[in-house]
């Protein structure tokens, strides 16, 4: 999996009660600073390799707390493949419970994040609270949120909030059916990726991109493997043009949209595919793990 967020002494300056994301790496100065304040930095487990594919489950508006707990118990008890990193993005209400219940098994991410910091923003969930709940990832710009009116500018603000808090944003991009028919799929994705412009390389490396053609979500339809590969490669090339090429190369580009165990090997095996963002098939342990087992390099 992915690199862990790096916390430096500068990040802690002037922050009264810092929240250290689970799994974060602290510089020696940051560690000393925390100890002086009587805070013992959490000892973290060995992370999965940075190059491992990721299989991210987006539960959308599904599962109550008892259902989320039952999923976690089943996943914990199941034979899980090695060499693939698992992430679950449940409804906000289940974040903290799942972060505890899945410790050492899967990471937890949010499905959205507020563009604001803490404050008078009724109904918004700020980055600080997501970190506090145990999140490591935050989906931004999911097509269902764009459909509800989110603009690229808003998505960009959310992405920066996530990064500033040490969360890894999963930036969703993808065209509608009409845009594809009009031959605009590539230009839409390039435009949506422009929100990454101006990020420092160290920040860019924390980002994941998920190409999710809107028309493939929940429809059972997927683009052909050639079409997916072409769009994933297009996204990687667009990233490299707009940023530090070495950092851009380390940004995994996932595919999402009707991924299931039966098509996972073909999609995850594409040369430019860094993993999958899964909706419906992530609601059941058997199908979620069926997809994870199909990832190249997955063992067991
Ligand atoms: P489906 O896998 O149900 O098509 O959903 C994809 C998705 O929107 C994941 O974010």
CATH superfamily of the largest domain, called what? Aldolase class I
Instruction: Report how far the terminal alpha carbons are from each other.
Output: 17 Å
What global shape is seen?
globular
Question: Which fold name is given in CATH as the topology of the largest domain?
Answer: TIM Barrel
* Ligands, ions, cofactors: 1,3-dihydroxyacetonephosphate
Q: Specify the structural class.
A: alpha/beta
- Computed Rg: 18 Å
**What is the mean predicted local confidence, pLDDT?**
90
The first-level CATH class of the largest domain is given as Alpha Beta
What does this entry look like structurally?
The protein has 300 residues and is of the alpha/beta class. The protein has 2 domains: 1-47, no CATH class; 49-293, TIM Barrel, CATH 3.20.20. 38% of the residues lie in helices and 13% in strands. β5, α5 (127-132) and β6 (137-140) form a beta-alpha-beta unit. α9 (185-193) packs parallel to α11 and α13 (261-268) runs parallel beside α14. The longest helix has 18 residues, at 225-242. Bound molecules: 1,3-dihydroxyacetonephosphate. 1,3-dihydroxyacetonephosphate binds at residues 58, 142, 212, 217-218, 256-259, 277-281. Residues 58, 142, 212, 217-218, 256-259, 277-281 line the site of 1,3-dihydroxyacetonephosphate.
């Amino acid at each position: 999996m992915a690199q862990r967020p790096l916390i430096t002494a500068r990040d802690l300056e002037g922050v009264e009660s810092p929240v250290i994301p689970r799994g974060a790496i602290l510089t020696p100065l940051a560690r000393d600073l925390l100890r002086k304040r009587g805070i013992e930095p959490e000892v973290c487990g060995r992370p999965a390799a940075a190059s491992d594919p990721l299989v991210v489950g987006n539960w959308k508006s599904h599962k109550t707390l008892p259902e989320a707990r039952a999923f976690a118990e089943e996943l914990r008890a199941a034979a899980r493949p090695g060499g693939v990193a698992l992430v679950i993005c449940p409804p906000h209400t289940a974040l903290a419970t799942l972060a505890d219940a899945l410790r050492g098994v899967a990471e937890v991410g949010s499905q959205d994040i507020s563009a604001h910091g803490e404050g008078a923003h009724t109904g918004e969930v700020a980055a600080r609270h997501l970190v506090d709940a145990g999140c490591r990832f935050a989906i931004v710009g999911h097509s269902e949120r764009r459909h509800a009116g989110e603009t690229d500018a808003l998505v960009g603000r959310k992405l920066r909030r996530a990064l500033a808090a040490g969360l890894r944003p999963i930036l969703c991009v993808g065209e509608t059916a009409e845009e594809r028919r009009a031959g605009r799929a590539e230009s839409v994705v390039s435009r949506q990726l422009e929100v990454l412009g101006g990020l420092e390389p160290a920040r860019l490396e924390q980002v994941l991109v998920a190409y999710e053609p809107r028309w493939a979500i929940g429809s059972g339809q997927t683009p052909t493997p050639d079409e997916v590969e072409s769009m994933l490669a297009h996204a990687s090339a667009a990233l490299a043009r707009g940023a530090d090429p070495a950092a851009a190369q380390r940004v995994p580009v996932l595919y999402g949209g009707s991924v299931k165990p039966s098509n996972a090997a073909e999609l995850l095996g594409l040369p430019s595919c860094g993993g999958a963002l899964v909706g419906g098939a992530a609601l059941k342990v058997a199908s979620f793990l069926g997809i994870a087992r199909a990832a190249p390099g997955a063992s067991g």
